[in-house]
From TrEMBL:
InterPro entries: ATP_PFK (IPR022953), ATP_PFK_prok-type (IPR012003), Phosphofructokinase_CS (IPR015912), Phosphofructokinase_dom (IPR000023), Phosphofructokinase_III (IPR012829), PKF_sf (IPR035966). It comes from Pseudarthrobacter equi. Belongs to the phosphofructokinase type A (PFKA) family. Mixed-substrate PFK group III subfamily. Mg(2+) binds at E103. PANTHER family: ATP-DEPENDENT 6-PHOSPHOFRUCTOKINASE 3, PHOSPHOFRUCTOKINASE. Gene3D superfamilies: 3.40.50.450, Phosphofructokinase domain. This is ATP-dependent 6-phosphofructokinase. Keywords: ATP-binding, Cytoplasm, Glycolysis, Kinase, Magnesium, Metal-binding, Nucleotide-binding, Transferase.
């Protein structure tokens, strides 16, 4: 194995740079193998936008947020497909490719492998919803950022005797809401895996209010209350007379205020929780995944994704990796719900 390519695709995620550094250092030091980095995900591979990644180019990057390579949501299979990727491999003299990405990237990697190209996947999403791995790097950082933000919402909520609603990310699963909500001591956590009625949410809010607390609601962006149709129709006009846009956080702001009579404010954390420096946990997990991806390549384990199982990093088939979305189990939700009062 003389040369590998590496790319980062899909939404960025704290810890991506630590994967790149782990892979490049393990490649050079352990396996005597060089790296080429493609800019902006698959786009760089399709358009020959590529940079060599010698050891000094990854110095000190593991603590930096974002990705030094840039990212995009370009799908290689819908842009000229496998032949262009194959040409990219040939032009750059690659023995194989390490693709760091979420579901879309891993699905593309599986398709490329089925057509004879040599790819190893590294799972990446702050959502923590990939089935074959116990945790994804970036999740811990997102939870840390969300928890800090929710702690801040609590103090302003308490000062104004308001109900505060924090909407966090999680396209399909409620992991960030569950962990940040538990860490911040939310009075209600709302996740798509466990739909509840708005009446139930209002009851939790009033129960907290009745105990003299400023109610704190943490909601995952994908949550839909029972009996409501998603996506939510914009309701009312904002202060500029425009239709009020927004997701579930905005809907809760309006409905809870009406239902409880408490002044209610919603904050959508959005991309704040994806940016910034990775936590120490994420740096270590991401570095280990980078090293393991190169080991897997050296051992010819193409068509696998490196995954965290317990405390070990192991290669699992991309087929298995893509099989299931990891949703919050009911018992994990009920554990948290004990605290809502
Ligand atoms: O999958 C990661 C994620 O951050 C989701 O939580 C969120 O729904 C989505 O990406 C946002 O994507 P974009 O950055 O394209 O708006």
């Amino acid at each position: 194995m003389r040369r590998l390519g590496i790319l980062t695709s899909g939404g960025d995620c704290p810890g991506v740079n630590a994967v790149i550094r782990g892979a490049v250092l393990a490649g050079e030091i352990v396996h005597g193998c060089g790296f080429m980095g493609f800019r902006d995900g698959w786009r760089g591979l399709l358009e020959q936008d590529v940079v060599p990644l010698p050891r000094h180019s990854v110095r000190g990057i593991s603590r930096r947020g974002g990705t030094i390579l840039g990212t995009s949501r370009t799908n290689p299979l819908s842009h000229g497909g496998v032949d262009r990727v194959r040409a990219g491999f040939r032009r750059n003299g690659l023995d194989g490719l390490i693709a760091i990405g979420g579901e879309g990237t891993l699905a593309a990697a599986r398709e490329l492998c089925s057509q004879g190209l040599q790819v190893i996947g590294v799972p990446k999403t702050i959502d923590n919803d990939l089935g074959a791995t116990d945790y994804t790097f970036g999740f811990d950082s997102a939870v840390q950022t969300a928890t800090e933000a929710i702690d801040r919402l609590r103090t302003t909520g308490e000062s104004h005797h308001r109900c505060m609603v924090a909407e966090v990310m999680g396209r399909n699963a409620g992991w960030i809401a569950l962990h940040a909500g538990m860490a911040a001591g939310a009075h209600a956590i709302l996740i798509p895996e466990h739909p509840v009625t708005l009446d139930q949410v209002a009851a939790w809010v009033m129960s907290a209010h009745g105990r003299g607390r400023a109610p704190l609601v943490v909601v995952a962006e994908a949550f839909t209350p029972t009996g409501q149709a998603a996506p939510y129709a914009p309701r009312g006009l904002d202060t500029f007379g425009r239709p009020r846009l927004g997701g579930i956080g905005r809907l809760l702001e309006e409905e809870l205020q009406l239902m409880t009579g408490l002044e209610t404010r919603a904050t959508v954390l959005g991309h704040i929780q994806r940016g910034g420096e990775p936590t120490a946990y994420d740096r270590v997990l991401a570095t280990r995944l980078g090293i393991a991806a190169v080991d897997a390549a050296a051992n010819g384990r193409w068509g696998t994704m490196v995954a965290l199982r317990g405390t070990d990093i192991v290669p699992v088939g991309l087929e298995e990796a893509l099989g299931t979305l990891k949703l919050v189990p009911e018992e994990r939700y009920l554990e948290a719900a004990v605290l809502f009062g």
